[in-house]
Amino acid sequence: MTDLNNWLAHISSQHDQVIDMGLSRMQDMLQRLDLGQPAQKVITIAGTNGKGTTATAIEALLLAHGRSVGATLSPHINRFNERIRINGAEASDKKICAAFAAVEAARKDLPLTYFEFSALAALWCFKDSVVDVAILEIGLGGRLDAFNVVDADIAVITSIGLDHQEYLGDTLDQIGAEKAGILRAAPQQVVLGTDMPQSVFAACEHLSLQPIQMGADFQISADPQQDTWRLQMPGDVFQEIPLGSLSSHNLALACGAVGTLLDVQEERFREVAQQTSMPGRLQIMDIQGRTCVHDVGHNAAGINFLWHELQTRNLIPEHIVCCMLSGKDHADVYKTLANLSGAPWALVSSHGERSLTSQQLAQSMNLSAPCFETMQQGLDHALSATSPGSVILLFGSFNCVEHSTWLAQ
Fold first, then answer.
1. Predicted structure pTM score
2. Structural domains in the chain?
3. Percentage of the chain with pLDDT > 90?
4. 269 pLDDT exceeds 70?
5. Which of 146, 261, 333, 360 has a 20 to 30 Å separation from 397 between CA atoms?
């Protein structure tokens, strides 16, 4: 097959489960395709929140320093090609189809999930492109994630929060232990975000690893008056870094990870901080004179993080539009944000896998709010309830951003 859409339909039907935790199929396929070393260096990124922005920042920093890079992002928002990036650009349909063909020829009668098929295609693309560094974003958990069959030279754990408890456990320690499954014995380099549970440090100690951690080994401090921030690291300080759309926390993690491979130049880091952005992560758009902020925060930890980033940028929402999938702690998300903001809400139905009607979301949140079927309707309501200059927050599952970012185009 040479048509990407046909391939995507095909890989969606190879396994009777969307999620089938376990590494045996991937380990088998890795040997068949000889993909154990997809690049000279491999960086694996796990965490409850912040994986995508950290991966994007690492990619941008490496490219700014002249390295060739392959990067994975998950999930995609508009098209599948977003999941596989070569040197800062989406892989072409032709490249992905070639990768799928190679995986299909090797798998024979072995059933693969959509994510496994996609992960193998990404690894194939990186090896075929002979990139210096491969950046692998863990999809769910860590220990049993498809990408964890590759031994990473550098492991990053961005954050630990309550999410996907049905797969990862009900406590932060349990979830931390699952995320720490990406760790390997020394000499692997490890970079950790703030507020890690004890299980992560226990895993590091067991493997004789000496992690560098945000808040302990490097610190950030903001200067909202100047829209800049400061990064202090062992032996170096970066001053007056522009406040862009990526969080300083995740940019600092990226700097820590890249710093294990090369000397990060302050001017290059400043340019990356100012210029790098990604869809659905504190993405700011002007719609009819309103500042509309799109974000995929969909758990309590993500909401607290998002609110801090909004405050840092003096963006206080006057209306909130929310769209979420089923299987999330909707009530906790609402309670967390309602404790931070008194802005009125509008709820929108999600679509596709694990869809949830706006009425079901209202019931789950125990919230009385206008309910709409489409994001266009929800946004129109928020626009009519606000005036030019207002800030509107559109947040929730990736489905929310997928159906809202195009509205500004």
1. 0.90
2. 4-275 (3.40.1190.10), 283-408 (3.90.190.20)
3. 67
4. yes
5. 146
